[in-house]
Amino acid sequence: MYDMFVHDVRGRPFAVQPYRRIVSLVPSLTETLFDFGMGEHVVGRTDYCIHPAEALPVESIGGTKNPDIDAVARLQPELVFADIDENRKQDVDALEQLGIRVFVTHPQSVAEAMALLGTIFALLAPLLSRNSAEALIHGIRKRYNELRSVLHPHRPRVFVPIWMDPWMTFSTGTYADDLLALLGLENVFRDRWRRKSLHEDLSFPSQTESLSESPDAQRYPRLSTEEILAADPEVLLLPSEPYPFAQENSARVLSLLSETTAVKSGRVYVVEGSLLFWWGTRMRLALSNENWAFFAQTH
User: Fold this and answer.
1) Predicted confidence (pLDDT) per residue in 177-207, tens digit
2) Domain extents for the chain?
3) Would you tell me which CATH number, out of the four given (3.30.390.10, 3.90.230.10, 3.90.1300.10, 3.40.50.1980), belongs to the domain 157-298?
4) Of 46, 48, 61, 231, which is the most exposed, with the fewest CB atoms less than 10 Å away?
5) pLDDT computed for residue 293 by the predictor
6) What is the phi/psi pair of residue 145, to 5°?
């Protein structure tokens, strides 16, 4: 009956069949599974899979970067979801060496993320809530097309740190960078690639062009404060994750970057990190004007 297959980002085939025991190592996908009506089949999650609230009683198997492989195995999953940016290759390899099937994702744009939602829908079709899942996907696609049609005569230049000590951000070829562009913002470091060593990355101006040997790591450069000041962003977005830019950390950012146009003009915003980085069904929120009210001040 289910003689169809879909493929993960590595090109590996997965049969379309009823998956009744699923472990998700990807917070955005955990939420997506629940939104697709698959919550009763999710038997394991990470500590960071906090949405929706219904997921919290599900057994946690550790963090996204340090899952307990034995704990995952004890849950006897028929399918595990992992992501190249969220999870480590060695953990995926360890699970597969135990004979556990791991579906790996890696969307690098909003369009790819939407296509991936369709792939996951197809993979889980035998058990998911078809009508609600289709409605979610349709709504996200509709809003995406609306945003693509908007003209932006001026795109404010934005800096989005994802870590401190050292500073880190993301460049082109990432879901978050593409999302910013879709929302009418220009990532000030979209063309900045990660270099091989920390010393090289933090040297400003750069005396080297030796890039990180990992193509995935290249998209997450480390920065010096001097380089950020020289880039002079017009807007600062401080996400709540992966680095917790809470009130005390925000005050430190304001002090370090006080000479930027963003700080001088008061265009510094603490934002919900999942809106920037969770690419699953949370895209319905990420693409909503209600969650980006500060745009009235930046455009």
Assistant:
1) 999 999 999 999 999 987 766 666 666 565 5
2) 5-146, 157-298
3) 3.40.50.1980
4) 231
5) 65
6) -65, -35
